[in-house]
Amino acid sequence: xxxxxxxxxxxxxxxxxxxxxxxxxxxxxxxxxxxxxxxxxxxxxxxxxxxxxxxxxxxxxxxxxxxxxxxxxxxxxxxxxxxxxxxxxxxxxxxxxxxxxxxxxxxxxxxxxxxxxxxxxxxxxxxxxxxxxxxxxxxxxxxxxxxxxxxxxxxxxxxxxxxxxxxxxxxxxxxxxxxxxxxxxxxxxxxxxxxxxxxxxxxxxxxxxxxxxxxxxxxxxxxxxxxxxxxxxxxxxxxxxxxxxxxxxxxxxxxxxxxxxxxxxxxxxxxxxxxxxxxxxxxxxxxxxxxxxxxxxxxxxxxxxxxxxxxxxxxxxxxxxxxxxxxxxxxxxxxxxxxxxxxxxxxxxxxxxxxxxxxxxxxx
Length: 364
Description:
Blueprint: H1 4-12, H2 21-33, E1 39-45, E2 48-54, E3 63-70, E4 84-86, E5 89-91, H3 95-112, E6 120-125, H4 136-141, E7 146-151, E8 159-163, E9 165-174, H5 189-203, E10 215-222, E11 234-243, H6 245-248, H7 251-258, E12 264-271, E13 274-275, H8 281-294, E14 300-303, E15 318-322, E16 326-327, E17 335-337, H9 338-358
Parallel strand pairs: 3-6, 3-7, 7-15, 8-14
Antiparallel strand pairs: 1-2, 2-6, 4-5, 5-17, 8-13, 8-15, 9-11, 9-12, 10-11, 16-17
């Protein structure tokens, strides 16, 4: 059994970009080697691999708590795929998101899984950074479910109980082509797209800071036109919209009303919001446990991004993100507090063991 800090360093040394299949496989193999004595189920779809660990020969019908983590990272500078320890800091790509946290999840699972009177599961995937559709979602579709799903993302010990919906759209806007010397003879689809984007950002203006509002990212504009002397007649606008629950249901209608005549909309991804009441027994217990260990107040807050916990949002599970302190996520300065990792382990152990007694009536 490798200690969490050493395990985190081993994982950080692997360049587990989403498209680096050999490195992702090596990371999952390292994880599996740390789970001797547990049943491990392996899953694969579209080349993405994941695993699920638990006690016993048969998968529980429903886990009491499912710990969720991932080995893939947001790609960065090749020089920073190395673990570096200096004082209280563990640095390197993935230190925060989320290899150090994952090492703690593994250690806590090993310590607690044989002791909890409810089934405890550990779910580790390799495609979270590209949506988790062939990892966490595949496992959910294969019958893996739980009362509580805890994603070990770094949250600074806050409890993230809400996350926006994720909607990706391709909007195709059509005009009329013409020679570039005679633009009045055509209708420039790029200019139609520009007017559409202006209307869209007027409807959903970009906030100046973290805010619980629907936001729009114009992710791409493709004119399909490579000649300078041609009026583009077709433009595709790619949109990444993160919406509040109040706005999510009406997004297709809003877009249709803002688009020019003849435009079409393709929905690429439409993921639900994650929202768990802070009054849920598990969240109340986690808050009390964290405050007792840290000696400071802990808050519930929303996430502007999302995690794989969202894949369980429609199953009746209490879905949360919870993790330790971190700095510089997805930058060359990415690092985490080693002391914070120790606190994280203590909090999770107490939470998992107390959950078995304090919320036993919620388990099935």
